[in-house]
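Lecture notes, unit on protein representations.

Consider one protein chain, 225 amino acids long.
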Amino acid sequence: MKNLIIGLSTVANGNMYNRYDHQDQDVIKNREKFLKSLGIGLDRTSRVAVNFDGDNFCRYFEVSDQDAGAGMRSDDIKFADALITTKIGHALMLPVADCIAAVVFDPKNKVLMLGHLGRHSIEQQGALRSIEYLVNHYKSSQADIKVWLSPAVSKDNYPLWSMDNRGLKEVALEQFYEAGIKPSNLINNPIETDKDSNYYSFSEYQKGRRDQDGDHMVVAMMINS
């Protein structure tokens, strides 16, 4: 996308999130190296940190300059299902390993959102509500908004029981289109994490079909034209 950097790491770039040690030095080094390859500084990046406690999985938070670097070396950031920035050069990062990382970009008003769309969020219309949030809080127009979706788990191995056993990506796409996103403004990476070993898959690890537990990273940052 013009005026936007989007990066997607792979297993070859190393683990980008340790569920049990949020200050894992190897993870921090992996993050720093991958970001540097894109011209992005670790301390100019904020991490989306999702918490599954409670019953609201459509929480959105705008980061400021004071949040630069937050969550990149530890858990020092407010929990949210998506982060938003209006600052050029302030990157947003999300580690994922089956769920969808959704980059939502309003180039007209220069608003960038990076959201986590997993089962909890999708069941609460998370894709649709993220667009509504930008429209209501940033005066974005659905006609201008561009969306990029990361690889995600297949419906074969992760059906949404509460949604007629449809797939995570299938329902997310439906919600984005319902929200008014033009198909021509949506880029969907069709890779399925449980079937492509270049990407981490938590569900496959739990089933004993992967040796490594870990997350790949999606990062997005607005740049000048």
